[in-house]
Specification:
- Two copies of one chain form a homodimer.
- Chain A is an alpha+beta fold.
- Chain A has a four-stranded antiparallel beta sheet.
- The two termini of chain A are 31 Å apart.
- The first copy, chain A, has eight helices and eleven strands.
- Chain A folds into two domains: 17-149, Jelly Rolls (Sandwich), CATH 2.60.120.10; 155-238, Orthogonal Bundle (Arc Repressor Mutant, subunit A), CATH 1.10.10.10.
- Helices cover 41% and strands 21% of the residues of chain A.
- In chain A, helix 1 packs antiparallel against helix 4 (127-153), helix 3 (116-125) crosses helix 4 (127-153) and helix 5 crosses helix 7.
- Chains A and B meet through strand 5, helix 3 and helix 4 of A and strand 5, helix 3 and helix 4 of B.
- The structure holds a DNA duplex.
Chain lengths: 248, 248
DNA sequence: CTTTTTTGTTGATCCACATCAACGCCCCGA
DNA sequence: TCGGGGCGTTGATGTGGATCAACAAAAAAG
């Protein structure tokens, strides 16, 4: 059994499940060796497709830097984003040959990849990676379910407010900027990506942003920088009860 | 390592992860013993709440019979169903104290429950349960993502058609009724549950059902029994590309 | 530099679905 | 037998967001 100890993750690959195992060299050195040999990094430019639904998946991967978007498109072009992959998030589906969804790089993305077959074998032999993967998948499932409430029942204004609240919270965590005062951040996604995420059109996204600005809920510097003078006010607009812990 | 063999699941508890382990008596008999001692069955009447979001979760459980609905409600009463739990589905979240969502019995439900703490311990010690749980969670995540496309981008008619297609497919699997001809099944859920699931109102659900009936896409006997004369036609109405594999 | 493309904003109009309201049917209890 | 409540249908009307269209600003390309 793996020793319970505080492990310092190495820097290169975030705190992905693979990394975690690779660092525990004292307990399962052979697996470390196997993994190191199979690891490969690959970079995708912003906008570049990473995989299409139905493609054969040769690898599983972990996001090192950047943001990737999981999405689905209907024949007539209607598109819905169904997930965001941030650094340390896992991509791929042990036990499945074909990808279920399209994944594209929203910003420039660096992936840390492993061949799928050996990874699956490793998963069978080692409980720790499996446990970590289970936790991550359960988190994603919870986030997806929160998102279903947003898509099914929230108004356009609530949707926009929710999205801004999520991004603000994430930025706050990243920057340790948990001061209760005003906050500010850059939207690094386009209006189109926001629309695809929220189940809206770009026109509606644009209109609701200006409405929130006119009502003083948010401020804007240029087209991409958002100011939040009163975060609880924004949460209230989002219609979330109290904390509204969306994290995807 | 567990021997790779064809295992016949016992009847009482579906093919839940716990069952799977309990049957492998030859490889891990001690775990079997532990589990048998902790198992308890509980029945909920149709409409009865099973757990509320925020409640402390003393147990994890597996659905033995019946259907349970996972849902979220906003302060003003807007509700969205975010998942269905069918026999053999797992309920609960290893490693989390409080429930994230409301769960209610849609029909009469029998659960096979285990105390959470010992179950978590078991999960750490035994990879097989974890792997099965991971597979189930990944399946649920895929289903949730398909559902996000429905909620975000499909029209009311497409939503209803999708739901009927899902139920029809499930019934076909259960009854081994994979004949290509016409199929029929009972809706055991109310119009309200359908509306909560699809992000619609009950009036719209009702209207779209009559519209589909008038257009010959479906037939109805009474208010609950649905006839599907031409399944591919229904799939086409659902807007799914080709197979449209929603399974939740 | 100019031209073209991408991205975002705003206005006018339309329509799919929500809302409000009335009613029919069935089950159950008095 | 009657009334009442749960469930479902249908009609009339309202409205939030989509659609169609024009344009501004910024970025990229030449």
């Amino acid at each position: 059994m793996a020793r319970q100890q505080s492990v310092q993750f190495a820097k290169s690959c975030g705190d992905c499940p693979i990394r975690h195992r690779a660092v525990c060299a004292n307990c399962e050195a052979d697996e470390l060796t196997i993994l190191e040999g199979l690891k490969s990094y690959k970079t995708f430019a912003a906008g570049e497709p990473i995989i299409w639904a139905g493609d054969h998946m040769h690898h599983v991967a972990s996001v090192v830097t950047g943001v990737a978007a999981i999405s689905q498109t209907m024949e007539d072009g209607r598109r819905q984003m169904v997930g965001l992959l941030l650094p340390s998030d896992f991509m791929g589906r042990p036990g499945r040959e074909a990808a279920a969804f399209d994944i594209t790089a929203a910003t420039e993305v660096v992936l840390c990849r492993f061949e799928r077959k050996p990874f699956e074998q490793l998963l069978i032999n080692s409980p720790t990676i499996g446990h970590r993967l289970l936790q991550m998948t359960l988190d994603e499932l919870d986030a997806a379910r929160e998102w279903m409430l947003l898509l099914g029942r929230k108004t356009a204004r609530e949707k926009i407010s929710s999205l801004l609240a999520i991004i603000a919270r994430r930025e706050a965590v990243l920057g340790q900027d948990l001061t209760p005062g005003p906050m500010a951040f850059d939207l690094h996604i386009t209006r189109e990506a926001m629309a695809d995420y929220l189940g809206l059109t770009i026109e509606t996204v644009s209109r609701q942003l200006t409405a929130l600005r006119k009502d003083g809920v948010i401020g804007m510097e240029g087209k991409r920088r958002i100011l939040i003078p009163d975060f609880p006010r924004l949460l209230d607009e989002a219609g979330d009860d109290a904390d509204g812990g969306l994290v995807d």
